[in-house]
């Protein structure tokens, strides 16, 4: 008998799960229905800042696969269809499909044998006066990006305020610079990029200033002023900042409300709990993507990290398992990368503060080097920080800030971290060397050497 | 009482050893004398092709440290001084210092307590008629590079033949193109870059042809024709190739003759045998750099790989140990990287042929991807090949050929290889992702996925 897989959420995690399940089970064996409340499925949310910046000119370029392609695979994608409840007893979902007119919407019920919850994240909206004014934009969905481009085009704003100095904030600050706007970045912390140590975050602050961004650090957002419903200024604990356009880059939390309401276990991070096969505690119910929490393999604590690469891997694992195979997502080490104009930034593992919070006694070293042999044309600056455990020298985290060719070096560190290498062991790593690609001691090895020397392991 | 360390060979390995020993033991405790038969110490031999190409305009830029800097550290560097014998019984070396006139040279004896053999490599000179003709150049030493530049300048050659299609051959072919010469590359094998599988080597052949290099593959070198002592043609099994300039890029063998003559153990590769602390079997005698053999951590066989990064690490380990510390060089996984104009190439681990020779039953997969998200400007092609063990899926090797941003990805694979990861485990690796840096599945992960799927581990 044919059974039915229902997928809630049609982006990376949900559609990866659907595709992988379909690969292993034909339509005669498994019916697949995917509900997506928006207008697009399977697109790169991480690409939105580059769409807004103009690096990508066609929103369609961000779409990995269109609904028609899924239909060809016998995956029934339902756009503008929002699941509003999960009924575990009846093994069904209640969903609402937008009718022709936005106002009225039908509610219907569909049973499932297997369920994938891939509801994504909820962007943090500040609970301050005026936050619903026109001209305040989020950048979570492709619709958000298209809407922002339309706003830029129609209103020709002059002054943009970006609220939040994390990855999205950085990328959106660059996008606004590219549109020729005056850009102010507001963050409640004393540094942008709070996932970095303060010294490394300070380098990003310097880079932002050098690109002409006004920084308002250590300022709490208090509200928005508006005229005729349109934003005119941002109020912070430091004063008023005139604004024709505000971009919210405050991150997101796991969208686990639906799961929680259904009685599915949600962890301390607010993300749905799963095992390494992406199973929730409820038989036949899976979860993947920004709505779940996962294990941080260094702190060994649950974390909720919204990132397309995790969503894809988790969705794929869920789909393979639903398809009768075996695949796992063991966790993350906290790798991330971004850039601001010519400045690249990357991190993996725990920051110094995170290491302390996780109970590690840690120390750190920072080294400066070049991306190529110093004498080779195009050698660029790279600063590498390593955080390691006192007494053992075990690598706990690493951060890189530098110019072109710097950031991707974080991958070698991420793999070393995955294996719990000590900095001393790392000094022997057989990393690639030729003058156009690295100094004879790669910046990663130089950092490991200095960390090993600081530990005194060789003295 | 002061003891004496004698270092034979003043390049990367020897001078790293000297510096590290000095760091830990002052001159009052350890006298250090380093003999170098050439005119320069501590330079980047790997930089010579880029000096010849014109990327580096001053030979001095390749010199990491000058003799005067070592003198300041109380390291007595003796240039133009060649050690001609090691006497283990008397614990002394016999050396010859060039006198003012090249012809006569004094022979002297100097005792040692500790000895570092860092005699480097002997470039392979083909044993064919005419190989001593003027216009046939090696590119092993800085002197070689300077001499070649002088030849180019004085003789304005039009046709260059590069003999040998390995890393140096590739780099010198590019250097000659940059000088505007007609370039022919000769190799006895049917592909350039024999350390790659034939299909990946074929991509390099394509790239060479696209850059205008004439390839003469599968042709054995038979001799050189000359007029008035100057080379005019190269004879191969395939015919005659007119040449105004010949560059030999045939690799090198460990320069272990001095060690062997002294009765110090030399392995089957021709390299001096050491343990992981770089000790030879003889008490107080160390060896490091291109003259030693080391353990290949995948094949578990001894290999002799001439590479500056290994030489530096080995010399450093020897010096730390001589200084009373503890440091090791556990071996290599065979990582290498190079480029030909815009084409980057990298490899690590075993090739398919090497895996078979080492007794592995291996399979391989090749994947095509891009260096950035496909929609992001500047996304370039990258082809990634993975070689893995049948039945276990253990990674055995990897090869990359691609455009800008491709090759350095080999490092993540090299670290994975170092830890004996399976391709299935690798699919979970937390590699950095953002559209300017990678597709949502990094090319490394795509290759791992395909390799895992080929193994059938998920079906």
From TrEMBL, chains A, B:
Residues 340-439 form the Pyridine nucleotide-disulphide oxidoreductase dimerisation domain. SUPFAM superfamilies: FAD/NAD(P)-binding domain (SSF51905), FAD/NAD-linked reductases, dimerisation (C-terminal) domain (SSF55424). GO terms for molecular function: oxidoreductase activity. It holds the Pfam family Pyr_redox_2. It comes from the Bacteria. Keywords: FAD, Flavoprotein, Oxidoreductase, Redox-active center. Its cofactor is FAD. InterPro entries: FAD-bd_OxRdtase, FAD/NAD-bd_sf, FAD/NAD-binding_dom, FAD/NAD-linked_Rdtase_dimer_sf, Pyr_nucl-diS_OxRdtase_dimer. Gene3D superfamilies: FAD/NAD(P)-binding domain. Residues 4-304 form the FAD/NAD(P)-binding domain. This is Flavoprotein oxidoreductase.
